[in-house]
């Protein structure tokens, strides 16, 4: 199959940041290894992009200095540099549309001259932010593809961990359909790629152009051979990696592991920091397990990976997580994941590589996890089997190259060069809602 000439809209792709800017940059770079990619980005990320020296055909910088200054002022003065608030997503809308309008004016002559085969928007990743390009390309000359998109995970009720983090604007989320160009974005897109079952379920009115590709991805260097050499009587090594914030529910992990920790059959490593750290340390003392739990705080990414490689089970009972980056890394490094069957982690983990517990209530989830951990402590053979299967799964399905290959199949179909790929969501939530 010949290389595609892809115009990628990734205004904030950044190889030197974390989270979404880094994820989308890695995705664009993986596509650039397979195709001729022109990356369209803001001037704010020009320097880190030039330092990365990845094989893009070109990097097209869109300069909007007065908009950049206005957004920076709003982020600092209105949001106190809090990137995690949902209100910021709505605030981004006019800036996102303005960026695409400026990019269109800068590139439209080249688009109509036949320099590109397809436009792919990877940022913004939120499904509530519309695209001007979808409307402007509605009559051609090339198709517009959107995604992978992720977001919109509901706030489950009955969890103390979420009571203080749920925002008022979450109840207004469906109003995004009234944003300028919102309906045109999905009506005129040739393909919509969703990165979670939840996001997929929002667009089932477009079944003929809807695909699933999980978020995020991992580098092949993570997928090393297993160097563990467990011995009879070894403690079960448990680990939690993530921000110590309520919704990550590290407290449930500690409560579930408490019986094993009390009888010296396991050790628990907690990596991360945040406002819950003091409360979690108090919980370990009240449970009598403080001598069996190590709080490591914030450590380097390379050290996180080393800790995962020496761990048996990644206990991650987050009750609301759109993505699953740390689960990708756990699988690749051989730490068997134990997660809640909800959101991103629930999409990625399946019975051949790990465990999922139902999102029910705190006491029931703790009981489910306690039983699983107790069984694993006495079944090293089963643990080793899951570990090997998980590492193979990560190598074959979860790398950036695997993600780029899946998106390539969608893009080839969009431009008429290949058959329509079969990429359904792991869970058909729209059918569950209808029932």
List the helices and strands and how they pair.
Blueprint: E1 5-9, H1 19-34, E2 36-42, H2 46-52, E3 58-62, H3 65-77, H4 87-112, E4 118-121, H5 132-136, E5 144-149, H6 160-163, H7 182-188, E6 191-194, H8 197-202, E7 210-212, E8 236-241, H9 250-262, E9 266-271, H10 277-287, E10 293-297, H11 301-309, E11 313-316, H12 325-333, E12 336-340, H13 343-348, E13 355-357, H14 362-377, H15 380-397, H16 400-414, H17 429-434
Helix pairs in contact: 1-16, 3-4, 9-10, 9-14, 12-15
Keywords:
disordered C terminus; 435 residues; 43% helix; Rossmann fold; alpha/beta; 17 helices
Outline:
The chain is α/β, with parallel strands linked by helices.
Description:
The chain has 435 residues and is of the alpha/beta class. It has 17 helices and 13 strands. The protein has helices at residues 19-34, 46-52, 65-77, 87-112, 132-136, 160-163, 182-188, 197-202, 250-262, 277-287, 301-309, 325-333, 343-348, 362-377, 380-397, 400-414, 429-434; strands at residues 5-9, 36-42, 58-62, 118-121, 144-149, 191-194, 210-212, 236-241, 266-271, 293-297, 313-316, 336-340, 355-357. The protein has a seven-stranded parallel beta sheet. α1 crosses α16 (400-414), α9 (250-262) crosses α14 and α12 (325-333) crosses α15 (380-397).
Q: Please tally the β strands and state the result.
A: 13
Strand order of the largest sheet: 3-2-1-4-5-6-7
CA distance, first residue to last residue: 42 Å
CATH superfamily of the largest domain: Glycogen Phosphorylase B
Proportion of residues in extended strands: 5-15%
Subunit arrangement of the protein:
single chain
Question: What's the number of helices?
Answer: 17
């Amino acid at each position: 199959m010949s290389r595609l000439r892809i115009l990628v809209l990734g205004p904030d792709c950044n190889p030197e940041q974390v989270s979404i800017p880094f994820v989308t940059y890695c995705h664009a770079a993986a596509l650039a290894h397979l195709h001729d990619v022109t990356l369209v980005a803001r001037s704010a990320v020009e320097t880190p992009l030039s330092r990365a020296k990845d094989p893009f055909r070109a990097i097209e910088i869109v300069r909007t200095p007065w908009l950049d200054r206005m957004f920076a002022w709003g982020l600092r003065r209105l949001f106190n540099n809090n990137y995690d608030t949902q209100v910021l997503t709505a605030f981004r809308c006019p800036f996102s549309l303005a960026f695409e309008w400026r990019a269109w004016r800068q590139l439209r002559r080249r688009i109509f001259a036949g320099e590109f085969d397809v436009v792919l928007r990877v940022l913004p990743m939120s499904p509530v932010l519309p695209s001007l390009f979808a409307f402007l390309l509605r009559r051609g000359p090339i198709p517009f593809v959107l995604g992978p998109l992720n977001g919109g995970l509901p706030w489950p009720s009955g969890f103390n961990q979420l009571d203080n983090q749920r925002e008022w604007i979450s109840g207004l989320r469906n109003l995004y359909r009234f944003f300028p160009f919102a309906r045109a974005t999905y009506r005129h897109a040739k393909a919509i790629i969703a990165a979670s079952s939840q996001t997929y379920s929002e667009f089932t009115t477009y079944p003929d152009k809807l695909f699933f590709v999980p978020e995020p991805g991992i580098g092949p260097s993570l997928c090393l051979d297993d160097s563990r050499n467990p011995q009879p009587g070894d403690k079960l090594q448990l680990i939690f990696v993530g921000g110590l914030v309520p919704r990550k529910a590290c407290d449930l992990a500690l409560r579930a592991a408490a019986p094993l920790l009390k009888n010296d059959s396991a050790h628990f490593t907690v990596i991360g920091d945040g406002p819950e750290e003091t409360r979690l340390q108090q919980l370990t003392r009240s449970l009598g397990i403080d001598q069996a739990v190590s709080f490591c705080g914030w450590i380097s990414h390379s050290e996180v990976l080393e800790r995962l490689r020496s761990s048996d089970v990644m206990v991650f009972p987050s009750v609301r997580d759109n993505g699953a980056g740390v689960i990708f890394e756990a699988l690749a490094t051989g730490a068997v994941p134990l997660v809640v069957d909800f959101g991103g982690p629930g999409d990625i983990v399946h019975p051949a590589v790990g465990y999922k517990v139902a999102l029910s209530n705190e006491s029931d989830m703790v009981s489910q996890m306690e039983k699983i951990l107790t069984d694993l402590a006495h079944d090293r053979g089963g643990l080793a089997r899951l570990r090997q299967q998980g590492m193979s799964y990560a190598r074959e399905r979860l790398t950036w190259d695997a993600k780029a290959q899946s998106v390539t199949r969608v893009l080839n179909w969009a431009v008429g060069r290949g058959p329509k790929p079969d990429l359904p969501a792991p869970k058909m939530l729209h059918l569950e809602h209808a029932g």
